Amino acid sequence: MSKQDWILAAFRALTAEGPQGIRVEAIARDLKVSKGSFYWHFRDVQALKAGMLAHWSQAGTDEVIESVSAKPGGARGQLYALIDASVDFDSRNVGGVLAETAIRDWARSNELAAKTLLQVESARLEFVCALFEKVGFSPNESRLRADLLYGGLIGMAHLTHWKHADIEERLRALLDMLLGENS
User: Fold this and answer.
1) For the structural domain made of 53-182, what CATH number should be given?
2) Which residues contact 73 (CB under 8 A, 6 or more apart)?
3) pLDDT confidence tier of residue 91, bands split at 50, 70 and 90
4) What is the mean pLDDT of residues 104-122?
5) Domain ranges of the chain
6) Cβ–Cβ under 8 Å, residues 83 and 171
7) pLDDT at 160 > cutoff 50
8) pLDDT tens by residue, 114-139
9) Closest by Cα among 116, 91, 110, 146 to 22
10) What pLDDT does residue 8 have?
11) CA dihedral of 124, 171, 162, 155, whole degrees rounded to 10
12) pLDDT tens readout for residues 3-54
């Protein structure tokens, strides 16, 4: 088992049971390995949790921003690419669409999760705001649009989980509306 295997299994536990589900024995059972494998990679459960948050920040923010920034089509194209990347990220093996929700819930009672969430959301909103500014909106208009798009992504994740909406279709429609004044 790699460190990554343990982190991904811990995400599955987080989304299934919340932070209390992140237990070495239960995750080892899920992975069908002994607890010794865990201690090869982590000194304790807190180190695993820190690794999970670092992975989420890196994969769900830094790598997405890097990938979207490299896309052609200018800021408009990059905003649409961001939706695609956000929807694709949810399907990765980190517990599905509920991983983001689970982390937000976890942040209500855990200082490191709260600090990481704040950093991640600040970086994400700053990036989206900058894209709207490149499209031609004022800083205030860009911030409003970034907040609405990001809030839409968070809300659509809930609706999609409960089969009420197609997240990609709805986010594209929202982005169309947000860009409509400058079309």
Assistant:
1) 1.10.357.10
2) 80, 81
3) very low
4) 96
5) 53-182
6) yes
7) yes
8) 999 999 999 999 999 999 999 999 99
9) 110
10) 93
11) 40
12) 999 999 999 999 999 999 999 999 999 999 999 999 999 999 999 999 999 9
Burial degree of 162 (CB within 10 A; 0-12, 13-18, 19+): exposed
Cα separation, 83 vs 175, in Å, equals 9
Place of tokens 């949810």: 90
Residue 8, token pair as written in the block: 């991904």
pTM > 0.85: yes
Which of 123, 124, 110 lies closest to 153 in space, CA to CA? 124
CA angle 113, 31, 4 (to 5 degrees): 50
Residue whose tokens read 């989420």: 56
CA 146/CA 125 separation, integer angstroms: 6
